[in-house]
């Protein structure tokens, strides 16, 4: 019913606006996108797709990838509970499990982990970025497990000239950072290297963070458009996590840590190596490949009031992947384009808990701690076909088959093995209404597999065997309209998602023993809209999002899914008094939401708004940026958690703070 109403409204709007469409300028710039896993040049994008270009990034003065995605891409961002200088992204309202319902990629390599952590983007230098593509809505056909909410694809530069940039910055809370980027072209060989460091004392007590990263990328161009490249990235980070504090304390002393004086460092080291390339078999056939390995070492010392005392956990994880694919233009017909691909990955993790002054889990049985292991091996094949019915109409069909084997366990419970055969599909119809407008309608099925943390933390009642979580599946529908109207650019999308076996943590499971469960049935329905306009010397952009969630079956039927704001909207204004100056203002307003794990909807956290200001000045190769964040000094929090005992704890966000950055182009 929701989609039918939306379709009727859009159809009427289209008819009403038809005369205005004819008044627009048919001259459209070409947009390069990688949404199909191949480079494509388009003149129009569906309304669910947002592109952030390197030009926009440079003009903004922002130098943190997470901030760029949230503030330029209008993506909901929340505190990353495992990192001081990173954010958790949420597309289409998945709340506490947003990270597991979105795929974040860097040149085809998954940054999203097969565990309950956020994708780390803070090690990537902005100078390396060619564009960031944000595709909202289910995309499991091309990207598989976890792409229920959408995909964020960070694409690095592949064609560079000789360039050197040095950036230094300093700000509130003893924050300082440096970044060096160097690129050079030797005939048909391109080399890029970078180094980056970030340090902060943190807004809250015991929230310091030290991050370092470096990398090199080499690419060789052959005859025609063939190319082959290699990329090596490494990062090293250490942070202290302040934890959540009671709601009442956050109003009076938001800076305090959960356990004052406790030493709780988190160390995370990552290294990734990837080989990539393209081979033009003919003018109409392209073969592309990415293969590589990603390794991660993680350790964390935790403090618990149960004891009280410390215990430490650590693990090593590795992911090996292979992603070959083929695109055939003019397949059978000059109006047809076919994409075929295979995704193979082998992920494994070894972890242990070492007893300190506070015992580990199950330490009464295993007094020296315990060891655990998790693995996931996946094989997938996909196909996607685009057919031009006419010069205005396109039909897109796609399907994916994936088989996965997941093994998880520890010294106490033993091992559990589960096998899943999953499938996804999509059908999409696009129609150009005029030179500058496009309408589309899409239906599909998407999925998410339980990860190793979900399985290890599955709810059990201590008397039965370890339960097996079911895969999460969804039937998704959306309709969208995008185009130009007079001097405006607009995009609006309506969507509906019916989800079965949504995987989520429930503190009420099995009589209060807590654990991860499958919700029998949930749904999301909503509307996303944006309007932009350029009136020299101003640029305006506004967006609004409505997401309504509900449990449709089970113990919480009729209740809202916690951790999701129903309304969010914002405004960006850029003022360019001269060609080398920009004054930028952005504000975000987010509706109140029920705390994570508050399945009975007993308490709603307050709505909040955040406004930021930037001044960017460019002269003779030097770019100076002054940022004032949270300019109205709001005391707010974007994340609240129900503790399962009737209380709510929150993670306060920084109050007003200042940051200054100087970037020199040599």
Task: Return the average pLDDT rounded to an integer.
Answer: 87
Helix content: under 10%
Briefly note the CATH topology name. Answer: Maltoporin, Chain A
Question: Rg from C-alpha positions?
Answer: 25 Å
The tally of strands reads: 36
Can you describe this structure?
The structure is a single chain. By secondary structure, the chain is mostly beta strands. The chain has a single domain (2-295, 305-665), classed as Beta Barrel (Maltoporin, Chain A). It is 8% helix and 57% strand. The protein contains 7 helices and 36 strands. The chain has a 22-stranded antiparallel β-barrel. Strand 20 (370-388) and strand 21 (393-410) form a beta hairpin. The N and C termini lie far apart (58 Å).
Q: How would you briefly describe this protein structure?
A:
The chain is mostly beta strands and 666 residues long. Helices cover 8% and strands 57% of the residues. The chain has a 22-stranded antiparallel barrel. The protein has a five-stranded mixed β-sheet with strand order 3-8-9-6-7.
Question: What is the strand and helix layout of this fold?
Answer:
Blueprint: H1 2-21, E1 31-33, E2 40-42, E3 49-53, H2 54-60, H3 65-71, E4 76-79, E5 87-90, E6 103-106, E7 109-110, E8 129-136, H4 140-143, E9 150-156, E10 163-171, E11 175-186, E12 189-200, E13 209-221, E14 227-240, E15 245-246, H5 247-252, E16 265-280, E17 285-304, E18 309-329, E19 336-355, E20 370-388, E21 393-410, E22 414-434, E23 437-448, H6 452-456, E24 472-485, E25 488-505, H7 509-512, E26 516-535, E27 538-553, E28 567-575, E29 581-590, E30 593-594, E31 604-605, E32 608-619, E33 622-629, E34 637-642, E35 648-652, E36 657-665
Parallel strand pairs: 6-9
Antiparallel strand pairs: 1-2, 3-8, 4-5, 6-7, 8-9, 10-11, 10-36, 11-12, 12-13, 13-14, 14-16, 15-35, 16-17, 17-18, 18-19, 19-20, 20-21, 21-22, 22-23, 23-24, 24-25, 25-26, 26-27, 27-28, 28-29, 29-32, 30-31, 32-33, 33-36, 34-35
């Amino acid at each position: 019913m929701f989609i039918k109403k939306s379709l009727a409204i859009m159809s009427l709007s289209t008819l009403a606006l038809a005369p205005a469409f004819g008044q627009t300028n048919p001259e459209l710039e070409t947009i390069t996108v990688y949404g199909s896993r191949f480079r494509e040049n388009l003149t129009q994008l569906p309304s669910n797709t947002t592109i952030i270009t390197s030009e926009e990034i440079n003009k903004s003065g922002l130098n943190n990838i997470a901030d760029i995605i949230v503030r330029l891409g209008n993506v909901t961002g929340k505190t990353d509970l495992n990192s001081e200088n990173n954010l958790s992204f949420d597309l289409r309202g998945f709340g506490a499990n947003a990270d597991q319902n979105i795929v974040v990629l860097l040149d085809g390599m998954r940054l999203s982990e097969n565990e309950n952590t956020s994708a780390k983007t803070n090690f990537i230098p902005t100078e390396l970025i060619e564009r960031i593509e944000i595709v909202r809505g289910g995309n499991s056909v091309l990207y598989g497990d976890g792409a229920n909410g959408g995909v964020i694809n960070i694409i690095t530069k592949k064609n560079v000239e000789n360039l050197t940039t040095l950036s230094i910055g300093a700000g509130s809370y003893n924050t300082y950072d440096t970044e060096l980027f160097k690129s050079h072209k030797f005939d048909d060989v391109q080399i890029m290297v970078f180094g980056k460091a970030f340090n902060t004392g943190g807004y809250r007590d015991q929230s310091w963070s030290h991050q370092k990263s470096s990398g090199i990328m080499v690419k060789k161009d052959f005859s025609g458009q063939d190319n082959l490249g290699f990329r090596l990235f490494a990062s090293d980070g250490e942070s202290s996590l302040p934890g959540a504090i009671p709601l009442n304390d956050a109003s009076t002393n938001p800076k305090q840590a959960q356990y004052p004086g406790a030493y709780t460092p988190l160390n995370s080291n990552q290294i990734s190596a990837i080989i990539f390339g393209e081979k033009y078999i003919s003018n109409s056939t392209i073969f592309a490949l990415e293969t590589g390995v990603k390794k991660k070492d993680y350790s964390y010392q935790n403090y618990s009031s149960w004891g009280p005392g410390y215990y430490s956990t650590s693990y090593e994880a590795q992911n090996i992947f292979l992603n070959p694919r083929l695109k055939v233009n003019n397949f059978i017909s000059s109006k047809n384009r076919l994409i075929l691909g295979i995704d193979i990955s082998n992920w494994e993790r070894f972890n242990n808990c070492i007893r300190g002054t506070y015992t580990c889990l199950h330490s009464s049985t295993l007094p020296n701690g315990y060891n655990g292991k998790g693995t996931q091996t996946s094989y997938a094949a996909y196909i996607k076909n685009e057919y031009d019915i006419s010069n205005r109409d396109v039909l897109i069909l796609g399907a994916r088959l994936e088989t996965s084997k997941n093994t998880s366990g520890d010294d106490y419970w033993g091992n559990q093995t589960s096998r899943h055969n999953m499938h996804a599909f999509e059908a999409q119809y696009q129609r150009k209404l005029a030179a500058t407008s496009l309408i589309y309608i899409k239906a599909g099925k998407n999925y998410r597999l339980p990860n190793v943390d979900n399985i290890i933390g599955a709810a059990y009642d201590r008397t039965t065997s370890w339960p097996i979580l079911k895969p999460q599946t969804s039937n998704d529908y959306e309709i969208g309209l995008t185009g130009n109207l007079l001097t405006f650019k607009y995009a609006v999308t309506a969507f509906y998602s019916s989800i079965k076996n949504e995987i989520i943590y429930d503190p009420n499971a099995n009589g209060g023993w807590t654990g991860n469960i499958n919700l029998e049935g949930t749904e999301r329905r909503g509307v996303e809209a944006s309007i932009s306009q350029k009136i020299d010397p101003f640029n305006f952009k506004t967006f609004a999002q409505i997401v309504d969630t509900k449990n449709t079956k089970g113990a919480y039927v009729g209740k809202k899914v916690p951790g999701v704001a129903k309304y969010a909207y914002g405004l960006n204004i850029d003022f360019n008094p001269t060609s080398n100056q920009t004054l930028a203002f952005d504000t975000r307003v987010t509706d109140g939401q029920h705390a994570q794990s508050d399945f009975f909807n007993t308490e709603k956290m307050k709505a909040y708004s955040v406004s930021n200001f930037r001044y960017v000045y460019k002269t003779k190769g030097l770019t100076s940026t002054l940022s004032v964040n949270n300019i109205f000094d709001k005391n707010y929090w974007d994340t609240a958690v129900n503790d399962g005992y009737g209380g709510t704890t929150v993670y306060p966000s920084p109050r007003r703070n200042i940051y200054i950055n100087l970037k020199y182009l040599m």
